[in-house]
Amino acid sequence: SLSILILALGAQIILRSFGNREIANNANKIFLLFVANQHSSRTFYKYIFSFSIFIIFSFLFYDSYLQYSVWSQNEVTKLFLPPHKPINYFLFYVGMKFFGPYLISLIFAFLFFFVAKYLNKKYQERFFYEEEFFIGALAIFLIGYPLAIFYLIGVISIYLLAHFVLAGASKNFGERLSTYYLWLPIAISVILISEWLVGLEWWRLLKI
Known about the structure:
By secondary structure, the protein is an all-alpha fold.
């Protein structure tokens, strides 16, 4: 998850910083043409989001296979597998331990995607850039549950703080303040401090 987020952040910087520059040579011509417009940027993040779902759940299935192999070779834990117990017991275990956090964060990601898109359309595209729906959904999904709760609180808090600071610094402040550059850096930061968050009482209450 952290690797994909760092890759997406690097792509975001390139897309916004160099997308509109004049093409200097044939080696990077195709790449710059691809990233020069917002529609291509949206398509890029759409593919990254889809790829992330595929790769994360592939790892989860592999982890489940490894877990089954470990249990089947232990004299005690093999009693929780067929033929001693129905396979449903093992499926429930891996579902809660491995798949649960990412299934919940994926639901949060889709909820964000559709709610944000609806609000953006309702208020004349004033809140988010077109590709931002996929960037936000990507970050929410990859950090998993319950980190997604802390993450969304962090994004909202930092956005409101920045808005109040800028509004206080300039009485005439009326420009659009975007969350575009908040999604990925905050997601990376939340993952990096996750070891500290695990010790909080909130974490124990939210963890499945």
